[in-house]
Amino acid sequence: MQDTTTLSRLFRYKAEQVSTIVTEAATAEDAIGYAVGICNQKQACSILPSGCEHDLSEGAQSLCHDKPAKLIAAPDLSRHHWDLLVEDCDNAGIGTIRHGLRSHLGGIDIGISWAQYGIAETGTLVIDSTDEDLRLATMVSEIHIAFLPLSGIVESAADLTGRLQTQMNSDGQIMAVAAHLRLKLVGEIGGTLNDPAERQKGDVDFAHHGRQAQIFVG
Fold first, then answer.
1. CATH number at residue 34
2. Structural domain range at position 160
3. pLDDT, position 36
4. Residue 137: is its pLDDT beyond 80?
5. Mean pLDDT over each residue of the chain, to the nearest integer
6. Are 102 and 109 in contact (CB under 8 A)?
């Protein structure tokens, strides 16, 4: 078993190999402040819902532009951290959302999530994805920012076997979010995991980040 410092370095190396930005953060508050700063500096997300490129009725067309100039989604922050995020975003003129992300697929600038574990040998995050809003925050946001506790980094997926089995047996669903697309792995596991209607209790859901991924380790 490698020490925490060595595992953190390996995780960072593997994640950065696929253009993920990995940053050390002393506290979650520091990471939240940094996330707001990133959003404040970037251009507003201009992704449009499917169909907005066509001629639409006046009512339908208005839905294509129904979003704040910039928007941060953070479904699983604690109340304390959510309040800090909202305060910082209000001061910067940035919108925030915690629930109902399906209604905002026209453009989410940054999605923030907590990762339960990080797998060093592959640069993979493991996130409890029982909540649809959390899944959307990690996948449809232009930038996905994940907070990963240093204590949650393990050497390989085998080191998580017992812990993941316990979580999946308690009506949970685990999402392994790789720093790059994991489509080959999805196919090898079973081929049905992309269809929510065919998922069974205990499935492991392999997904991907938005256009850009940043991980804060601390």
1. 3.40.50.10420
2. 4-48+63-217
3. 94
4. yes
5. 75
6. no
User: Which of these, 153, 122, 143, 158, lies nearest to 15 by C-alpha position?
Assistant: 122
Residue type present at position 9: R
Distances (CA, A) of 218 to 23, 83, 114, 136: 9, 20, 12, 24
Report the pLDDT value the prediction gives residue 204, as an integer from 0 to 100: 43
How far apart are alpha carbons 123 and 8 in whole angstroms? 10
Of the candidates 54, 76, 52, the residue with the CA atom closest to the CA atom of residue 62 = 52
Task: Identify whether 53 is part of a domain.
Answer: no
In a domain, 57, yes or no: no
Task: Name the residue type at position 123.
Answer: G
In a domain, 29, yes or no: yes
- Encode pLDDT of 79-131 as tens digits: 999 999 999 999 999 999 999 988 877 678 999 998 888 999 988 888 877 78
Q: In whole angstroms, what is the distance from residue 213 CA to residue 90 CA?
A: 24
Model confidence, pTM: 0.73
Please tell me the distance from the alpha carbon of residue 42 to that of residue 171, in angstroms, as a whole number.
Answer: 38
Q: Are 113 and 101 in contact (CB under 8 A)?
A: no
Average pLDDT over residues 157-183: 61
User: Does residue 167 fall inside a structural domain?
Assistant: yes
d(CA 146, CA 144): 6
Domain count within the chain: 1
Question: Residue with structure tokens 């790059």?
Answer: 180
CA pair distance 143, 149, nearest whole angstrom: 20
